[in-house]
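Tip: read the tokens left to right.
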């Protein structure tokens, strides 16, 4: 959720919420291609099959590094835990993180938060889409109207570019609601409740 506290929205705890999502991905043990300009990959969402593929790759890598991990159990738990979360994200983010994680050596996988690092590394290369721009325009205006707080569009764009345009279109609709309902709706759409 794009909120600094439980009362006022901003981007302070968005990173904490994203970290919680990434932690869930890593604890649970959990593809698509980019077209080069980032536009078409941002407009789609991660499918259940792509989420399953991500979980398969994650669990196979974990099991290759730690023989006590059962790939089937890991994959099922991962898919159950993260399919809806991954469905909110851009496929090029998920695919890039998966590729990075698969290429990691076992020491990095077992001793660090490598999946989170791979997501961070992939996110740097993402270009904000038209959906990001539309969402941030609505979000910045909503925060100003409801709370009289200025939020930098660049901050909004760097955080929200992780989400698919379909997810952001739903979150943008939330900004037309009453001030009391806007940020609860946004939180539900982005999966940060």
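Filled-in amino acids:
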């Amino acid at each position: 959720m794009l909120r600094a506290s439980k009362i006022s929205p901003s981007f302070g705890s968005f990173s904490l919420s994203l970290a919680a999502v990434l932690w869930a991905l890593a604890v649970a043990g959990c593809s698509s291609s980019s077209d080069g300009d980032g536009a078409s990959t941002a407009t789609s969402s991660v499918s259940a099959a792509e989420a399953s593929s991500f979980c398969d790759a994650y669990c196979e890598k974990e099991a290759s590094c730690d023989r006590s991990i059962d790939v089937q159990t890991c994959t099922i738990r991962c898919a159950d835990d993260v399919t809806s979360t991954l469905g909110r994200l851009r496929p090029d983010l998920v695919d890039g993180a998966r590729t990075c994680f698969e290429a990691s050596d076992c020491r990095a996988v077992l001793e660090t938060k490598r999946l989170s690092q791979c997501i961070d590394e992939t996110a740097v290369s993402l270009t904000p889409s038209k959906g990001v721009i539309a969402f941030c325009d609505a979000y910045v205006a909503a925060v100003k109207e409801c709370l009289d707080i200025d939020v930098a569009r660049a901050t909004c764009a760097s955080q929200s570019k992780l989400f698919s345009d379909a997810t952001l279109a739903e979150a943008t609709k939330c900004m037309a609601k009453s001030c009391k309902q806007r940020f609860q709706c946004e939180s539900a759409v982005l999966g940060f409740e």
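The chain has two domains: 14-124, 130-190. The longest helix spans residues 48-65.
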